[in-house]
Amino acid sequence: MNLDPFAHPDSVRAFLHYARLQSRKPGLSFLGEIVQAFARLPYENLSKILKLNQHWERRDARLRLPEEVIEDHLERRLGGTCFSLTFFLQSILTQHGFACYPVMADMKAGRNIHCCLVVRLEGVKYLVDPGYLLTQPMELNPAKPRLFRSEFAGVELRRVPDTDAYDLFTFNRHETKWRYRFRDRPVPADEFLQHWQASFSWNSMHGLCLTKVLDGGLIFVHKYFMRETTFTGKKNYNIKRDYHARIHDLFGIDPQVVEQAQVALQENLKRERESGLWLPRRPAPEPAPTEP
Hints:
Elements: H1 9-19, H2 28-38, E1 43-44, H3 46-54, H4 66-76, H5 82-94, E2 99-107, E3 110-121, E4 124-128, E5 138-139, E6 146-148, E7 154-159, E8 165-171, E9 176-183, H6 189-198, E10 209-214, E11 217-222, E12 225-230, E13 233-238, H7 243-251, H8 255-275
Antiparallel strand pairs: 1-10, 2-3, 2-9, 3-4, 4-5, 6-7, 7-8, 8-9, 10-11, 11-12, 12-13
């Protein structure tokens, strides 16, 4: 299978129509508008769990390419995980003349379990991360280490001395947390594809996870745990009793789709156990980058 960002023009046009954006020459303002609009697509793994269930034996058929991502968002309010979102955003930017490339990132749980994009524009590099739901491009510049989401919270990049790597932290008024380290090295399409295929066997596929950007913060859902992070702090909830209703109210995803994903999840876990693929020490959840 060949991952070609130029091979998906229909999905790019559909996204621009959805976002009410007009095509124009690449520039920082246009990049910001694209990234801001793209952040409306939620991070969620329901769609990935469903695709795995439908195509357990067909590795290439599991991948949700840009046409499916935008169609699922328009029809079912779904989004994707970091690989499908990153490749879709790469397709949008590439087809509008932006020079960009995917990079891989390491987290506490292991290497190469997150991905994002670096954009080169007029001699300056910017990080854009749809899997982490960054709503703005972030310049890779030690003199501009912080991107503020609000007056009291944001993202910080620290260059690792004498390397091509950066550490990404989130911060608020109370604490700073290390999230991941990425290397400013273009990942070839075949290597990116290998990591994408490998992600279907990670622990991220062992529970439903969703994240959404709010005007004042983030909503994070993992299994029956929900965290609402706003400018004023964090609130945790157990949403087991009204799970389907909460997902519908917050994300617009129909309860029937949530139920289908829950059934598919249990079937997938059973298949893993029966096939001997159950390995409890595999990389930790891919959703970790988006957890507030």
